[in-house]
Amino acid sequence: MNVILTVLLLAIGMNVQTWAVSVVPTKPIVCGQCDPNKCSMTLDKECLAGLSLDVCGCCQVCAQRERELCDHPDVSSAKKYGSCGENLECRIRSGTKTHQEASCECTDQIELCGSDGKTYRNYCHLMESAKLAKAEQKSIIKVSKRKPCDSPPEITVPPVNVVNQTGSNVFLSCEVAGVPLPVVEWIYQATNGKTIVYPTDDDRISTLVRGGPNAHVLTSWLQIQALQSTDQGVYTCIATNALGKSEKTAYVKVESRHDL
Ligand SMILES: *[C@@H]1O[C@H](CO)[C@@H](O)[C@H](O)[C@H]1NC(C)=O
After folding, report:
1. Which of 26, 56, 117, 164 is positioned for an S-S bond with 168, CB 3.0–4.6 A?
2. pTM for the whole thing?
3. What CATH number is associated with residue 174?
4. What's the Cα-to-Cα distance from 113 to each of 121, 152, 157, rounded to whole Å?
């Protein structure tokens, strides 16, 4: 009698084990018959991307989140990861030919402004934060508009001081971020108090603007060609948009050739 009971318990024990999502990479997963009563309880609020069924299609488990690996029919893998959660789709990542991977990507990739005033890279990112806020009993986060939140200019990479000799070419750069995209001006202040605002029609000192490296970021350069001693002074990068203004300065020191 005792022996039979032990064998039975062992059998149940083994069964329970097969239901636990296997994380052993090489061991193939053996799915027994599904008994929902044997599933451990997983609540939707515990899972940032919602619930999905485990790799055996039996118990509810946390779904894979954005950028987590997932099981794609065209990617052969000994390891099973599970399904993607809400608003996510399992897509093949560009990998090597021999080693491909698939990960969960958000089906709605538009940048959003949340009711908390923060910009989210996509809908899934916002929904994860919303779920977290709810779990922590903070104020709820909703989509306030389908574009990034407005933000005042911020100088993310300020210009740096330059020392160079007369006749050389000098670049000052200023990377700014903001929504709407700021307008950048440069102000030159000479030691004698004279000021000049660039851009001007001066063809020796010019400005150049380019968007990037990221969205809502632009880089402005002030180029001084054939540096003269009268170019010495303080140069200020000023970024302005509807929400405000930000500025950073750099010093240009000019050395005469015969000083060296
Ligand atoms: C100084 O001038 C030289 C020659 O024009 C240029 O190659 C170099 O990048 C300049 N250095 C700086 C720090 O601007």
Report:
1. 164
2. 0.66
3. 2.60.40.10
4. 9, 15, 24
The pLDDT tens digits of the residues spanning 172-204 come to 999 999 999 999 999 999 988 899 999 888 889
Regarding the beta carbon of 224 and ligand 1, being less than 6 Å apart is answered: no
State residue 56's pLDDT score.
86
Of residues 50 and 257, more confidently modeled: 50
Please state whether beta strands 183-190 and 195-198 pair in parallel, antiparallel, or not at all (unpaired): antiparallel
- Ligand 1 atom closest to the Cα of residue 167 is 5
Q: How far is the CA of 227 from the centre of ligand 1 (A)?
A: 10
> Nearest CA to 71 among 53, 46, 48?
53
Q: How many domains does the chain have?
A: 3
**Parent domain of 120:** 112-145
The Cα–Cα gap between 73 and 65 comes to: 18
Q: Is the CB of 164 under 6 A from ligand 1?
A: yes
- Is residue 221 domain-shared with residue 137, that is, in the same domain? no
Do 186 and 156 fall into the same domain? yes
> pLDDT for 126-161, tens place per residue?
999 999 999 899 999 999 999 999 999 999 999 999
pLDDT of 11 higher than 70: no
| Ligand 1 within 6 A of CB of 227 | no
Q: Is 169 in the pocket of ligand 1 (CB under 6 A)?
A: yes
Question: What atom of ligand 1 comes closest to residue 162's alpha carbon?
Answer: 13
Other C-beta atoms lying within 10 Å of the C-beta of residue 258: 7
Q: How far is the CA of 162 from the centre of ligand 1 (A)?
A: 9
Testing ligand 1's pocket by substitution, the residue of 169, 172, 173, 253 carrying the most ligand atoms inside 8 A of its CB is 169
Residue 4: pLDDT band with limits 50, 70, 90: very low
Is omega for the bond preceding 199 within 30 degrees of 0, making it cis?
Answer: yes
Residues 208 and 249 in one domain: yes
User: Which residue's CA is the closest to the ligand 1 atom numbered 1?
Assistant: 164
